[in-house]
Design a protein that fits this description.
Layout (H helix, E strand, L loop, with lengths): L1 H21 L6 E2 L6 E2 H19 L7 H16 L2 H10 L4 H13 L3 H21 L7 H16 L3 H18 L3 H14 L7 H12 L3 H20 L1 H10 L19 H17 L1 H7 L3 H19 L5 H9 L2 H4 L2 H5 L13 H20 L14
Antiparallel strand pairs: 1-2
Helix pairs in contact: 1-2, 1-7, 2-6, 3-5, 4-5, 5-6, 5-9, 6-7, 6-8, 7-19, 8-9, 10-15, 11-15, 13-15, 15-16
């Protein structure tokens, strides 16, 4: 499967870059910061980022349901329009100003939609990579990217506008956890301007501020229980909630279509996967908090994802759209598991990599079930574009 091949190759280059970063090198060294790095370090990162972007750009237009729905149309329209009328139309149609702007910029250079999808994927992958690097002292960046690829990448070929918003939110996590609220707020606004559903990131700020003030284990459990119940209740009564959000112009009228959808595929998979992560996180709560106190926040995000997953299981098809912003916590939390549970005895050389191997198998299985078996987003099988 070409997807898995690209995932593995990209992560291999990220892994090599991690090793090069730890070594002092004066051979062909350049510096973009305080520390000089070998030029091969930057080459490996560049290749790792380019591989999934090239795959996205070379795909046939039938890969991803939203490509034909609005992807091709808005890019072609950008090439035929002047800037102000185009952005005004994008605003009126709730396409997302950041997404529309990216369309327009690329359309200045080329009229080839494949170039736009390449650039879009490169921007998203780069934002996620930089977001994960914000935790490089706690996790393997390469494995964090593998989590991203198996959980989110195929969705990025389908949910064009929203995955741009999700990647911005993923990048913003590190700034929230470093108390850099201004930068986090700027990124949150950009995410909302990419897809209005990103308004839910307000929950993140509120949860983080609460957990900063209340550090006890009991209060963390309490706030997570309240979050689970409140979000589940809101989403179970989502018709009234959506009507309220639309009537007050918080969400656009295009969300009215969400009131008509009832069929959901892969509900058990979604609920089972995020439920398992949450159960493990609470089971290993003490170890995870001792490793990094900020994990309380990430566990709360996973709890919120579970609440959305439960509602999706009960029939609200689009509640999953709101969960994606909190799902990002998993690509930081999951790579911490091997770090927390290092094997004490290495019976066989390389045994310390066993947790990564086992988690990798689980992630591949989840990816296979969602995108190959359930055909979520219609991104499988992969087909190359005609040239």
């Amino acid at each position: 499967m070409i997807y898995l091949v690209v995932f593995f190759l990209s992560c291999c280059f990220f892994m090599i870059s991690e090793r090069l970063e730890k070594k002092e090198s004066t051979f062909l060294s350049i510096s973009f910061g305080k520390k000089k790095q070998s030029i091969f370090y930057y080459i490996c990162i560049a290749i790792g980022l380019l591989l999934p972007a090239i795959l996205a750009g070379l795909r046939d237009s039938s890969i991803g349901t939203d490509v034909e729905l609005y992807g091709n149309y808005w890019f072609i329209y950008a090439g035929k329009s002047r800037f102000i009328p185009y952005m005004k139309m994008a605003s009126e149609q709730s396409i997302g100003l950041v997404y529309a702007l990216l369309n327009y910029i690329v359309a200045i250079v080329t009229d080839d939609t494949r170039v736009f999808y390449f650039v879009l994927s490169l921007v998203e992958t780069t934002l996620v990579y930089l977001g994960i690097r914000g935790f490089k002292d706690k996790i393997s960046v390469a494995f964090g990217m593998f989590c991203y690829y198996t959980i989110f990448y195929n969705n990025s070929l389908n949910l064009l506008r929203q995955m741009l918003a999700v990647s911005i939110v993923c990048y913003s996590y590190q700034f929230l956890l470093k108390n850099r609220y201004v930068l986090f707020s700027v990124l949150a606004v950009l995410a909302i301007m990419s897809h209005s559903s990103a308004i839910f990131v307000i929950f993140m700020l509120l949860v983080w501020l609460y957990l900063k003030r209340h550090k006890s284990k009991t209060k963390t459990y309490f706030v997570n229980l309240i979050l689970f119940v409140v979000i589940a209740f809101i989403m179970l009564t989502y018709r009234s909630f959506l009507e309220f959000m639309i009537s007050h112009h918080i969400l656009s009228e295009r969300y009215l279509t969400y009131l008509q959808e009832t069929v959901v595929g892969g509900r058990m998979l979604r609920l089972g996967f995020w439920g398992a992560i949450a159960v493990f996180a609470y089971f290993a709560f003490k170890q995870m908090i001792n490793y990094d106190a900020r994990n309380k926040f990430l566990i709360s995000c996973i709890t919120i994802s579970c609440a959305f997953s439960l509602v999706m299981f009960m029939g609200n098809v689009y509640t999953i759209r709101m969960a994606y912003y909190f799902d990002c916590a998993a690509i930081i939390l999951i790579p911490m598991i091997p770090k927390i549970y290092k094997l004490k005895i290495e019976v066989v050389r390389g045994m310390k990599y066993l947790p990564y191997f086992l988690l990798g198998i689980v992630l591949i299985a989840r990816w296979y079930l969602e995108y190959v078996y359930f055909l979520n987003g219609e991104t499988y099988p992969y087909r190359f574009a005609n040239f």
